[in-house]
Amino acid sequence: xxxxxxxxxxxxxxxxxxxxxxxxxxxxxxxxxxxxxxxxxxxxxxxxxxxxxxxxxxxxxxxxxxxxxxxxxxxxxxxxxxxxxxxxxxxxxxxxxxxxxxxxxxxxxxxxxxxxxxxxxxxxxx
Length: 126
Prior knowledge:
The protein has one helix at 102-106; strands at residues 2-6, 9-11, 17-24, 33-38, 45-50, 58-60, 68-72, 78-83, 92-98, 115-118, 120-124. By secondary structure, the chain is mainly beta. Strands 1, 2, 3, 4, 5, 6, 7, 8, 9, 10 and 11 form an 11-stranded mixed sheet that branches. It starts with a strand and ends with a strand.
């Protein structure tokens, strides 16, 4: 089972990036999927999560509400994170994640999340 995040890069403040999380080895249809990030010297933190279906409810950290949008494709083996109006404080390594329980993604303790992908670096430089 693998989750692979891609789409990171360097942008100026106000710019946009779209991250993609691709799952392989099993289907995550029916699984909540989400995104976390970790800045240097800081704990990994929740960014966004999407419930089971392509039109499932989405959850966001307060710091990204209104700027980031999580979505999933029709087959539900991919998740996306559209990031707009990026700020320098958004600079971090971004990780995609999946778990059978939505609460594992949104509950505040990332250590309980079952599936993790390798991260992708996002740098927002002034």
